[in-house]
UniProtKB/TrEMBL annotation:
<dbReference type="InterPro" id="IPR049704">
    <property type="entry name" value="Aminotrans_3_PPA_site"/>
</dbReference>
<dbReference type="Pfam" id="PF00202">
    <property type="entry name" value="Aminotran_3"/>
</dbReference>
<dbReference type="GO" id="GO:0030170">
    <property type="term" value="F:pyridoxal phosphate binding"/>
</dbReference>
<keyword id="KW-0808">Transferase</keyword>
<protein>
    <submittedName>
        <fullName>Class III aminotransferase</fullName>
    </submittedName>
</protein>
<dbReference type="GO" id="GO:0008483">
    <property type="term" value="F:transaminase activity"/>
</dbReference>
<dbReference type="InterPro" id="IPR050103">
    <property type="entry name" value="Class-III_PLP-dep_AT"/>
</dbReference>
<dbReference type="InterPro" id="IPR005814">
    <property type="entry name" value="Aminotrans_3"/>
</dbReference>
<keyword id="KW-0663">Pyridoxal phosphate</keyword>
<dbReference type="InterPro" id="IPR015424">
    <property type="entry name" value="PyrdxlP-dep_Trfase"/>
</dbReference>
<dbReference type="GO" id="GO:0042802">
    <property type="term" value="F:identical protein binding"/>
</dbReference>
<dbReference type="InterPro" id="IPR015422">
    <property type="entry name" value="PyrdxlP-dep_Trfase_small"/>
</dbReference>
<dbReference type="InterPro" id="IPR015421">
    <property type="entry name" value="PyrdxlP-dep_Trfase_major"/>
</dbReference>
<comment type="similarity">
    <text>Belongs to the class-III pyridoxal-phosphate-dependent aminotransferase family.</text>
</comment>
<keyword id="KW-0032">Aminotransferase</keyword>
Length: 470
């Protein structure tokens, strides 16, 4: 049985197609209405002034009928595209039967847990448990904090500079960005942050890496060696200033931090340090997981299995909210009610997630994401611009670091490129510690032709912005 239409049939035909100024008159009305009644915390329309009406596949239509190619996908949520008919059929069938069941057993719930277990990293496949809490990635992170504390008896947390783990109290404590925390302190006590390795930004000679690195099998990158040495010090240093942390939380690829891909030995080094110190290693796969990188989970590129991994975003299939944590069964030590949340029984989201897995497998979207990501990165690398510092990423998780003449991240150029793109019908986003990274997160169902058209617009915007910045 064929599971859903091919990716070529999912989209609006006319994308990109922009007939009005941006925002158009109807979008402007809705933006003004939002400003009158919505929260001042609203953020995304401040950067991309649009109001949306419909979406199909890798295309989205605004309230004025303009059609955009979507290299944004709701910040990596819509991995199988907007309104994927195969996924929506499963969601709607479930919605007509039963929607909310807290944590009572249902076929949808158990099928979803088994489906995730089948695509889990090898070290978790067949010996894992899953816990649900609230419907977001932040909720999954909160569950992971409780898991680590409960199993180690320690309360310290270790995360990385440049990280983003969510906006709730514990997740915000782990998040590296001080701007997210301003006005909301204090955070959880004994939460420490160490540098995340960034070979491009640090630009260090690698001659001394082996001498510095705490690992026997050094990958030769000084930024990695320095980071691992800092992690080890927080666990084993007599003057680290606190007890050894309960766990290490790490994004296999940093998202908000600028789509930073760590050196080859980094995750294995963390695995070894965690094992040596009876701590948990927890991968935040909320953005890097569910096929986005060309593997099911970002950590698989390094061949490293965590003790637990948090997930959200794409796992709800159709953009439905669902947060969860998969962890090794040996850590399943909590009793009934050990982790709670009213909305941990979102059955339509679970059915949507199962259907999304089936659709990705049926249409070989992991390989497609790998190949399309290579094409996108190669197209951008071919742009002749001294202001493109680095093009990086894996699969369809792509970052383009833009720099000024002094080598600093160039937020103004990112904004100019973003504006030029949406005015021509392509949606892109930003990242980086100074918002100087162009972040591309297209759905896995984007076609080669759509990518080619979109990259014509993106590369032209990069070239024009380079000329303006010279």
């Amino acid at each position: 049985m064929t599971r859903g239409p091919p990716i070529t049939e999912l989209h609006f035909d006319e994308a990109p197609h922009v007939d009005t100024s941006i925002p158009g008159p109807r979008s402007q009305q809705l933006l003004e209405r939002q400003a009158e009644i919505d929260s001042s915390a609203v953020a995304y329309p401040k950067s991309v002034p649009l109001a949306f009406a419909e979406g199909q596949g890798a295309t989205i239509k605004d309230a004025d009928g303009n059609v955009f190619l979507d290299f944004f996908a709701g910040i990596g949520v819509l991995n199988v595209g907007h309104s994927n008919p195969y996924v929506l059929e499963a969601v709607n069938e479930q919605t007509n039967e039963l929607v909310h069941t807290i944590d009572f057993p249902t076929e949808a719930r158990l099928d979803f847990i088994e489906a995730i277990g089948e695509i889990a990293p090898p070290g978790l496949r067949g010996n894992s448990r899953m816990v649900f809490g609230g419907p977001s990635g932040s909720d999954a992170i909160e569950g992971s904090i409780k898991l680590a504390k409960h199993n180690t008896g320690r309360h310290g947390l270790l995360a990385f500079e440049g990280s983003y783990h969510g906006g709730s109290a514990g997740a915000l404590s782990l998040t590296g960005g001080r701007g997210y925390k301003a006005g909301y302190e204090p955070m959880l006590p004994d939460t420490v942050h160490v540098p995340y390795p960034d070979p491009y930004r640090e630009r260090l000679p690698n001659d001394g890496a082996t001498a510095l690195c705490p690992q026997d099998d050094c990958c030769g990158q000084v930024s990695c060696a320095r980071s691992l040495e800092a992690v080890k010090e927080k666990f084993e240093g007599a003057y680290s200033g606190h007890e050894p942390p309960a766990a290490i939380w790490v994004e296999p690829i940093q998202g908000e931090g600028g789509v930073v891909v760590p050196p080859a030995g980094f995750l294995q080094g963390l695995r070894d340090i965690a094992d040596d110190n009876d701590a948990l290693l927890i991968f935040d796969e909320i953005q890097s997981g569910f096929g986005r990188t060309g593997e099911w989970w970002g950590g698989e590129h390094a061949g490293v299995t965590p003790d637990a991994m948090t997930m959200a975003k794409g796992i709800g299939g159709a953009g439905l909210p669902l947060g969860a944590m998969l962890y090794h069964e040996k850590f399943d030590t909590w009793g009934p009610g050990g982790h709670l949340g009213t909305f941990r029984g979102n059955l339509p989201a679970m059915r949507g997630g199962i259907a999304a897995i089936e659709y990705i497998q049926e249409h070989d979207l992991l390989d497609h994401a790998t190949q399309l990501g290579e094409y996108i990165r190669d197209r951008i690398r071919a742009v002749d611009s001294p202001l493109i510092g680095e093009v990086r990423g894996r699969g369809l998780f792509i970052g383009v670091e833009l720099i000024d003449e002094d080598g600093r991240q160039n937020a103004e150029m990112v904004k100019a490129v973003q504006t030029s793109c949406y005015e021509q019908g392509v949606l892109v986003w930003k990242a980086g510690r100074e918002n100087g990274v162009l972040r591309l997160l297209p759905p896995l169902v984007m076609t080669n032709e759509q990518a080619e058209i979109g990259l014509d617009i993106i590369t032209n915007a990069l070239e024009s912005s380079t000329d303006d910045n010279r």
